[in-house]
Design brief:
The complex is a heterodimer of chains A (256) and B (247). Helix content of chain A is 86%, strand content 0%. By secondary structure, chain A is an all-alpha fold. Chain A starts with a helix and ends with a helix. The chains are: A mainly alpha (256), B alpha/beta (247).
Chain lengths: 256, 247
């Protein structure tokens, strides 16, 4: 029993220490965004890596999510004779919750793991040390562009998710199940307010920063060779997914 | 001149460097030998500022680098280049881009001039222009080392640190890399610190040899002096005796 409590205490302290270290890591990287040299090409490369290359999986996930929402929503709403509100149900679900959260989780799984692996391999093969010895700040060259790319790409991917999901919902609800196209879109327009969209944007910004921060931090602090990279990659996916869900609750309660 | 004075460093309570005193003369090649895991690379990383000592001083032309921070440390690093054990080539860049990297990052040279200098270094390393577009994972071990050396040399540094430059290479490539170090040193006159355990090959390029054992420099002199050193620890290492290696 004492051993267990000691272990619990150790893990808690480790968690708190890591959380603090991650915040310092974030502050150092973001501060470097305002220090020359500026490397716009690096930023564009990272936006392509994190954003553009995640687009196919986002489109796929969004389409099926919208279709399932429409399917489930139609039969639930039909019981109350309210199938005309399907567009509203699909849009609000996507814009407020499903869009930001599922985008965050998909980006975490695809891009987050790739970022951790990339930086982790750079760490164990001394590429980060090589940058340091050439008087090129590895935080500024490697980490900062990825953080900015996450802040730019994830909200855009979330918007793509929302639009595609609404389209998937239209396909099932209107084309397959016969809901009126006019009522699908009009109910959406009537019920979606700026607060919903703003909430979704804020969530996607926070999720984007969180995912890339965790990915970069884990990669940058990788130790113990290939096994360390593997462990760090695994931790990135799990931790960033958990943090997305935790932040989702916090932000939802803030916007409600 | 580089002077290491009473350098101490420990990790998780384990003492690795236990009072190192070493002078690395300007314009000469100093080789540090010792068995695997004795702390040779740890010593090297202190010289470039990748590690900070627990105690002691590292003077480069009478400037204590352990006290340098921020801009001063960055300026100091401009005078150094490092050849890492695995080459540390950037995976996402091809050979040309790797060698050109320091010039593109640190200078405003036009691309034509950068290309000219890169090709000159490739020629110096006996690498054909066909390797320019190859990625690091398409290169052999020897080619990686030569590309890494070209990248280090292109900065025209005053001091180059070599961390086990021939580890993992076959004997002909070992001799090739040592020959290239000797040739480039003769042409450029840089100060070199070579961390290695490839004896006696490394003695062919050394002006000074220092042996690291149990955190201290136990012998320092010319290759001939080291080979004639009566200290049983030195002789056991040079002969590769089993008792010593399993100590």
């Amino acid at each position: 029993m004492v051993q267990f409590i000691r272990y619990l205490g150790y893990r808690t302290l480790e968690l708190v220490r890591d959380a603090g270290a991650m915040q310092l890591f974030l502050l150092e990287a973001l501060a470097l965004a305002f220090v020359p040299p500026f490397r716009p090409r690096r930023l564009l490369q990272e936006i392509q890596s994190i954003g553009v290359k995640s687009t196919p999986i986002i489109l796929l996930t969004a389409a099926f999510t919208g279709m399932v929402l429409a399917l489930q929503g139609y039969y639930t709403l039909k019981r109350y004779g309210s199938e005309g509100a399907l567009g509203s149900a699909v849009a609000l679900s996507l814009i407020r919750e499903m869009g930001p959260v599922l985008t965050g989780i998909m980006v975490s799984a695809r891009a987050g793991s790739a970022v951790t692996a990339e930086i982790g391999i750079m760490r164990i093969t001394e590429q980060l040390d090589a940058l340091d010895t050439m008087a090129v700040n590895p935080m500024q060259y490697v980490v900062m562009p990825k953080l900015l790319a996450g802040l730019i790409a994830v909200p855009l991917l979330t918007a793509i998710f929302d639009v595609t999901g609404i389209g998937g919902g239209y396909l099932v609800g209107v084309v397959l199940l016969g809901v009126s196209s006019g009522s699908y879109f009009s109910s959406m327009v009537q019920s979606v307010v700026p607060l919903d969209i703003n909430g979704g944007v804020v969530k996607s910004l926070v999720f984007g920063l969180t995912i890339v921060l965790v990915a970069c931090y884990k990669g940058y602090n990788t130790k113990h060779g290939a096994e360390g990279v593997s462990r760090a990659t695994n931790q990135t996916v799990v931790l960033s997914a958990v943090m997305v869900l935790a932040w989702d609750y916090i932000l939802t309660s803030f916007f409600m | 001149m580089i002077q290491v004075i009473d350098l101490y460093k420990s990790f998780n309570g384990q003492m690795v460097l236990d009072g190192i005193n070493l002078t690395i003369p300007t314009g000469r090649i100093t080789v540090v030998i010792g068995k695997s895991g004795v702390g040779k690379s740890v010593l090297l990383k202190h010289l470039i500022g990748l590690l900070k000592p627990d105690r002691g001083r590292i003077l480069v032309d009478e400037v204590d680098i352990a006290t340098l921070r921020g801009r001063d440390l960055l300026d100091f690093k401009e005078h150094f280049a490092v050849l890492f054990q695995g080459g540390a080539l950037f995976d996402s860049l091809n050979v040309f881009e790797n060698i050109a990297f320091p010039l593109r990052e640190k200078t405003r040279l036009p691309e034509a001039e950068i290309a000219r200098r890169v090709r000159l270094r490739l020629e110096q390393m006996h690498l054909s222009s066909e390797v320019e577009t190859k990625l690091p994972d398409e290169l052999s071990g020897g080619m990686k080392k030569r590309v890494a050396l070209a990248r280090a040399m292109i900065q025209e540094p005053e001091i180059i640190l070599f961390d086990e430059p021939v580890t993992g290479l076959d004997p002909p490539m070992t001799n090739t890399v040592f020959h290239l170090i000797e040739t480039t040193h003769r042409e450029s006159g840089y100060t070199a610190l070579v961390v290695a355990h490839d004896i006696p090959e490394v003695f062919t390029i050394a002006d000074q040899v220092a042996m690291l054992h149990r955190g201290r420099i136990v012998a320092c002199g010319t290759p001939e002096e080291i080979q004639a050193d009566p200290d049983p620890v030195v002789q056991s290492f040079l002969k590769g005796e089993v008792d010593f290696l399993e100590e």
